[in-house]
Design a protein that fits this description.
The complex is a heterodimer of chains A (715) and B (331). By secondary structure, chain A is of the alpha+beta class. Chain A is built from 21 helices and 27 strands. Chain A has 4 domains: 61 residues, 434 Repressor (Amino-terminal Domain); 307 residues, no CATH class; 162 residues, no CATH class; 101 residues, Sandwich (Immunoglobulin-like), CATH 2.60.40. In chain B, the strands form 2 sheets. In chain B, strands 2, 3, 4, 5, 6, 7, 8, 9, 10, 11 and 12 form an 11-stranded mixed β-sheet that branches. Chain B has a 3-stranded mixed β-sheet with strand order 14-16-15, with helices on one face.
Amino acid sequence: METGEEFGPWLARQLRLAGKTQAELAKELGLTRAAVSAWIAGRSTPRPTVMTDIANALGTDVGTVHTRTTDTQAGLPVTWYHRPGYPDGGRDLGNAAAFAFDADVQVLARETCQNSLDERLTENGRPVRVRYTLHELTGEHLDAFREAILWNDLFPHYSAVSETAGNQKVGRVVDAGVRDMYEKGRLVLLRVDDYNASGLTGDDYADGKFAAVVRRQLESLKSGPAAGGSYGLGKATLWATSALGLVLINSTLSEPHEGRTERRMIGRLELPWREVDGHVYAGPAWFGRPDPDKPGAEVARSWWADEDTVDRLLLSRENDEPGTSFLIVGAHDVASLEGESSDQDGGQRDEEGPEDTRGIERMHGRLVEALGRDFWAAMVGGGGRLPLLEASVRALRNGEEVVPETKVDPSVEQPSRTRALRAHYEGATVDRLTESGQVASRNVPLKLPLTGGARGATLGTHQAVLLVTEAEGDRDTPVNRVHSLRGNRMTVRKATVPNLPIGTNPFQAVLLVGEAAGGAAPFAKEAEEFLRAAEPPEHDRWGQTEELTLRWSPSAYRRIQNLTTEVNSAVRELVARPKRGRGEGGEALRKALTVKSRPRAKVPTGPVVPVLDGLDATIGDQGEWLITAEVKIPRGDEIVPMVPVAQLDVRSGGRPRLDWAELVAVEGCEVENGTLRFPPGTRRAKFRGATDASSHPVRTTLTRLVVDLRAGKGA
Amino acid sequence: MKIYPYKRLGRPITLRVTSVSLKLSDGTRDPLDTSAYSTQEQAVALGVAGHSDWVSATIGLSATLPPGADAPDAAWSDLRVLAVLTDGETNVRTSTPLTRDAEGSRDWSGHLEVLRDDHLGRASLSAYAVGTVDGVRGRSITETDRSWIVDTVSDEPVRGLRLDVRKASFNKSSREWLRAYGDAPWLVDTTARVPTVFVNTDIDGIVGLLDSNGSGVESKARDLLVAQMATDVWTAVFHGAIGDLEVEPDGGPVFPTDWQGEVLREMLPDVVPGVHVEEALRRVHRRRTGEAGWGELQTRIHYAAVRRADAAKAVGFMIRSLERTNRESET
């Protein structure tokens, strides 16, 4: 039989949960307190008959006592605990960390994926697998889910927030979220799962990953030195993405806590300060089991849920691999609205479309895009190296798949850069580009300063790796950009290379710095640390930060600027021809003497000139060309008479001209002596014609016919 | 409008250059950097590496056919793809068959050999898909819609024709004909491979002014000078271009293929606005060779040249710059 944790600790926790003492249990079982104490200390185990009594005493079945894979339902049920208002009357009208982000699933993708990469279990060498699931609930599915999260208990809190929503950002967002759910009868959940990651380990309150995510703000407890975040802001995006400020968590731990690993559950709600039924609440609330060890047994702590509960909360994990599942309740994507108007030009728009921040298909597309753009490098393996990350996105509606699971494929999202990185891993790079498809590699120096701000002193020179290759096809845009990344393989900087000569072949480049440059690169660790300090919370550039100033010097950021300059000139050297001083007479004159195609003819006044707009031609029985032509005429009072001319196309030299055997006006024109005349005000005309086969120099089936209209009589 | 007497594909072939290498006179090969060609400009500059002794160039090509070329119900059979290099000046035409990359693929690739002696300057490179239609072999089913330019001299892969600029001391130049023009600051020669502007270094400071890249009044004066020179040059090349036109049997002009064609294509829309360039050329040709109207056309030609030279802008900047200088000297 599968058994969960040790009997002793399990029983101790059940007693605490039930609010019973060891003595009380002993009394109920008709045994001595010492016997119970011995069980808890692990010195002995109860006989099978006693197990049944224990089950009765705890109000559960004997199976639960035997397997101990879950807590009994005895004692205080899972509930919401709202943090009481501060005794000093202070009010937090929103979580400042969450303010740093707008609801944007692309930002969420970046932050969550980065966390998963940082928490990857490195021992087994396998990638961390991240899966995003968009799930829209309506009807009974929505009702069932609301029941599972005890919506009726929460509702008064949301109402209270809505009432005061008027002028507070968080309040308005929450108000809109609740109204959307009721008016449209739907709720969008965004679930983020990672597998082969460490999971939320550690105690409920003491230092550890669990507390860092669930209890604390702005704390970052990352597993390795190459980790992405250093601000602890990333997790706030989870709550920022929820219009209801509500996130539920199910974690499978890599290291047991309380003897268990699976289905550690907790929920956290971020609301502004509010007053409900005469009580004031500070803001956050937790969904969990009341902790009997805390005063008044009110504080909710994580609990070990059974499979059924996890299922009802839509948080079942697909296997027992460690990792965490976050369920963002009421997910919305405000940032998607921006792209909407610029993406479409003129096309008929779905009336609902542009305003809907909760469309799951659209969010699906944006997630795939963001993951491909920011994490393509982490998903690339090669040369015996496995990728660090696998990511996929799917969308469901009431449990039915709407958009099938899409595995983000770096060779589709970033084809040329993926090719470049793979070539680097496989050692297949070249020094200079002589054939399209090649990947050129260069070392670029980054001079690291000494810590502590010794002016101008250099600790050492790190050799970053620059990869340049031709951009692949038209979809690989924007072109001529360098993606810079360090140890965690997340694209940090995306910068266009300036000052490229006109006509430079479109390329893509990758800069691997720090640990990404490979273990053999000198000062990789130091460079990694330096760049990490230079990375702002948005993870979108390297530059001046406070940390950089404090740990190195106020001018340390210039080292990064120098790196950028080196990179740009190295790229230019690879993709552009060197400027030679051959140009005599100065750049300005040579520019003025270039024949550029710039069609900018002025519209003339006076008679308008008809143009040929459509042509149909077949070969007749006598070998003559039979044509039907349409003519388009610009608006104008007077129309120039035109002469239709039939010629045979040739490779070079003059085109032989064919005679007309017949020229007939069909509409909008008259034919007079081989000239077409148009009545004033005509906009379209049509005529028919047949060539004189005797004027053809060669067999008609071997010719190409050219028809055009020439102005005036003498054509 | 062009009509073929058989069914064809509606969409063009896309042609890309994938590599360029030069064969030198000593038999060695020099693979050129990919910057020797530009996929955006669709131009190959074989003069990039600065070799004076190359014999031939090998250009790697890749062509993608539009969908439908392999349709089972297509009106053609024996599909082949050819790369064709044509030179309007030397009348050389070279074709090379491309091979299909993989069974069922729409991508074809191959190498084209360019012999240096076959070309004077700019040749045009295109791809044709041909097949047997109604028993006639080698009929074109579709082509590239914009051909590549292969320039055997240029060191910059740009599509636009760049007129040559040379500095010379007119009085002491080895080009003896220049000596007759010793007092001219610049001259245009439209008989060279590409029209060439000679700047007379005997005029003190003119080269320095043209080469300057400072700001302030000096740069405005330079721009004004450039505009003046460019107006002269454009007027001269236009006249040069329409001077020697080939004539069709019916007396109409044939649109030239070399630099004259490019100059005309650029300027004719301003000389005879509102009509197709070929029609415009016919009108200009009629006026030049006919009895009347040539004089009236000069204003239009001058106008087209002035526009190309951006003279209005240069004059405007100069005037504003002078005004500013005057104000500053008053205060």
